[in-house]
Amino acid sequence: MNLLPLRPLRAPGLPAAPVPGSFKQAPADFEVEELPSYLPAGEGEHTLAFVEKTGMTTLNAIDRLASALGVSAREVGYAGMKDAQAVTRQWLSLPGVDPARVLSLELDGIRCLEAGRHRNKLKIGHLAGNRFRIVVRGPGAEHLDAIRANLAWLGEHGVPNWFGEQRFGSGGRNLEKGLRILFGDRRRAGRGVPKRIVRLMVSAVQSEVFNHVLAERVDDFGEAIAGDVAWQHRNGACFVVGDDDVADVAARCASFELSPSGPLPGPDCLAAAGDQGELEAAVLEALELEIDLFERAPGGGTRGARRPLRVCLQDPGAELVDGGIELRFALERGAYATSVLRELLADPPWFDDVPREPDSESGPAAADGAAAEEGEITPPPE
């Protein structure tokens, strides 16, 4: 196989042309701060620690912390994985460890900023979102007005909620591996491979389906039609939009209470109806996929879910700094900062911009850790 993930499209309607520039030139140019769903309760057998890491993956940081504290890395909880090539701050839960001991740790590239006792282990998705500070190198004062105008438009209309290249791994190979798992020998695919890695590969296929649906809806990604599955941003609740609901739903979309959604296919993914249902079925058919393939995947399968076609860009701003322009904004959980950058920059990176080496991985589900490491991504639904 040599399948490249679909390149995301730029949102129509942006008022200014994209600008030249690059990002992630150094870890300090890309900062991510996790916005928690809750703070330490002050009591309990776990310690919630707000940890800053530089230049390493979340899982590497967890391994180092667990080793230093003498606990099992498997018992350390986290709400989402953060980018390696960045300075990131996120909450972790540590079992049976005194907060003072965590605060006193001295580890290269890791420091604990806050710690307090809590009653439960932190679980995937237990975050409200992420706040970003990103320096784009290259653009100057002559580009500032264009960036600000486009940020303002995105703040009003929303950001197309593309899955970024991080979900698909180095060279986009996780999509190929996921397809091998779904269409190949499932027993062999899952043998000796951690379940979370198998799910990660399969999730790349789900993400490709979503991106294809969003590409077909990018002209009206913020407008729900009859048959759409509407997504409630407050809590992720979903419902199918009936003919009698369209006017009410339109008003709620205009206030960003609701957005239309796309599928992460699986047996629990709420099916759209009408034209949207036909679109989603056509995408699956074009990719030669069936729903039951996801349920039967090794590693316990994947149940599927819905994902909003757009996300709200919160508190956007841009300022000149030495050598470029600094961007600041926040996004709800599961969204990519690179989706924002893709709307602002003239030539954002994608897989066909770099040469691809032959895939020499020994197994069909060999892990590519890059897929799960991005400041704004949470791992795929269980």
Polypeptide structure, described:
Helix 5 crosses helix 7 and helix 7 packs across helix 9. This protein is α+β, with helices and mostly antiparallel strands and 382 residues long. Helices cover 29% and strands 23% of the residues. Strands 1, 2, 3, 4, 5, 6, 13 and 14 form an 8-stranded mixed sheet that branches. The protein has a 4-stranded antiparallel sheet with strand order 9-8-10-11. A two-stranded antiparallel ribbon has the order 7-12. The longest helix has 23 residues. The chain contains 11 helices and 14 strands.
Any low-confidence stretches, pLDDT <50, length ≥5? 354-382
CATH architecture descriptor of the domain at 160-312? 2-Layer Sandwich
Number of DSSP E strands: 14
> Ends: how far apart?
27 Å
Structural class: alpha+beta
Series of H and E elements: EEHEEHEEHEHHHHEEHEHHEEEEH
The CATH homologous superfamily of the domain at 160-312 is called TruD, catalytic domain
CATH level 1 name of the domain at 160-312: Alpha Beta
Q: What's the Cα radius of gyration?
A: 21 Å
Key words describing this protein structure:
382 residues, Pseudouridine synthase, four-stranded antiparallel beta sheet, 11 helices, disordered C terminus
Question: Would you kindly provide a brief summary of this structure?
Answer:
The protein has 382 residues and is of the alpha+beta class. The protein is built from eleven helices and 14 strands. 47% of the residues are buried.
